[in-house]
């Protein structure tokens, strides 16, 4: 076995000793390839640049404000590779710093360990660490691989020795997908940097961002440091996801993930190239070879964790508002929604319900009927979710507020830098302390508080907010010491607020697993984990958690909404990018506050936002206390009709959405995706981000402009069938079309070649699940289509282990629709209708397992077939010309 591995590795690894990243001591570098040697945001002078041994050359052309004037020369001393040897997992080597007479980065590390791990044919890991000092590593679970793969790989690896570098090439095409010769490796105690050339400018991911889906390579700097910051294109936002996917020029795709949670930057430039800078931890890269975009996401989620399977009810419509003054006010909204027969599954409450905004309480004066309201929701097949913030009030008398008393007794609050008392911040209830979710007892503490509240108000899910963690007092109510290299590191990435403690905790505060400096961006994800696990234990069903702050692996525990978005047409458009990006990050349960959170909405904007939001994987309407109410029942009768119609469309398509979530939970694929994911060789699809897809088979083209009555939409090559105007067909070779879209119409198309399951809708999922299913059969140009359905009870923790789920595959070919059943559900699942598109002439007969069925031709060459068959059993439907 060992000799087989050796032979494989010898063909895999090529070593180029003595090969540097450029020739000679030269500053003659193409402007687009300048790697910034002075990334500090403060002004610098030529003398300071040259003290670092770097080139100083002012630039006065286009992008003069972005192109670095101080940059690394081609022979900047970096590290030399030696002692490269074969291991059971791949390769290891030593990196020795090259001597220099220049003023270098403070506390550089002279000797490093290099580990190259050949984990699978499509995944490898590059790890650079300090052999003499233990450094912080991100404590999330990743696959433990004991031995290198023995299967043929999609990649080849080349080492460069005298100026250390690693180059990765795709075996099939020779595309260079990772090449660290773009700039020198820098490895200091609080400044780590690695640059890589990119094979194309088609870069996606790198978030959380409030921008276009395609990441700009025009000297774009992206900062990762979780912050309570409303969506803005020039700020670090609520989550950190140092992962990108690149679609190469030939349509192959790969991904790169830097497993690091310290404050970080990724700077992109037109070469194209990307420079990673982080101020702690280690350099720990995963590279995924795809080769398709969806395969890249499957491989990424194999490392960070597959997305959670949500309860079925959570895919319905959610309604919330900061500003429900009483429980009776909240209940009245629910009653009016029912009276208007507008579908709704979940009612939420913001911090209004709390006593003095304290967690795990409810205001007995104004929300006295809250338990009764929740019971009424349950009796009507609906559910209840409330908000919880991590800041726990510390102002109550001893013995009067268990969340604080219990936390003190269990010593689970984050401590100040002295380690002698909890660090104190200020959030909604006033002065607060913060649970340390790295503490081994924090889960028990958190569950105790949730259980105690659930005993009073039987909630169904939890909304966790302010968990970056947010703090209205920068650092603490006592400030930060300011003399720590943690609070004042040698280099601070370009974070909003200019300091790491801005609107959060002092980073030298102490947690069980280390200092907040390292753990800050993990806070929200770890709270998600504790909350999800507590909900499972309390309710015995799948958990439902929505969090503002996220980090890689958050999708294992719940979903995300993109925060305090504005009620503007611009933010309506931007929300699509958020949906696309978080699916790339393995968090498919994603949506924006429908109609916007801040600023007053208007009827037209809210109608159009409901039409888009009906296709967010997570659908919630929510807004600010100071703004006008914006529930569907707050608008005109016509507006309510339009909103009801699009909600009915969503509920009709929920079986398809649920099936996509099942695929995500098992395979790690996206639920909603950009067109680039499905059509990576289509140059136009690579830049379209005002349309998106559910899976492979459904294209959503929303109206995003004020006053518009049509959509200028792109349709990639193939047949596309209008969803509601059954059978209206667009036969596209890859073109833009103007599609009629009056205010009462939502533009959604089935993609030719796919079978999409649906269901007759009702006013909530409990009732709609009692209705018959529908199959929409959309043949491609060859007359073929395929699709699948996953079905279970919608709440069980592990339907697979209980062997209580349905998994059916449908195929249409040669005028015949067949089903194959891989697993069955213990209850009957009735199929009531098949809509078959692109039927040119009325058939003489349609049969189910040889027995004639009722059918009718409807408009636009579509066939409506009525039947009643249990999908747990295979069937054959023949359309006889």
From TrEMBL:
Keyword annotations of the record: Disulfide bond, Glycoprotein, Glycosidase, Hydrolase, Membrane, Signal
Gene Ontology molecular function, alphabetical: alpha-1,4-glucosidase activity; carbohydrate binding
CDD domains noted in UniProt: GH31_MGAM_SI_GAA, GH31_N, Trefoil
A GO CC term assigned to this protein in UniProt: membrane
InterPro entries (UniProt xref): Gal_mutarotase_sf_dom, GH, Glyco_hydro_31_AS, Glyco_hydro_31_C, Glyco_hydro_31_CS, Glyco_hydro_31_N_dom, Glyco_hydro_31_TIM, Glyco_hydro_b
UniProt source species: Phallusia mammillata
Pfam families on file: Gal_mutarotas_2 (PF13802), Glyco_hydro_31_2nd (PF01055), Glyco_hydro_31_3rd (PF21365), Trefoil (PF00088)
Record-annotated P-type domain positions: 25-74
Name this protein carries in UniProt: Lysosomal alpha-glucosidase-like
Position of the signal peptide: 1-24
GO-annotated biological processes: carbohydrate metabolic process
Source domain of life: Eukaryota
Locations listed in the record: Membrane
Family to which the UniProt record says this protein belongs: Belongs to the glycosyl hydrolase 31 family.
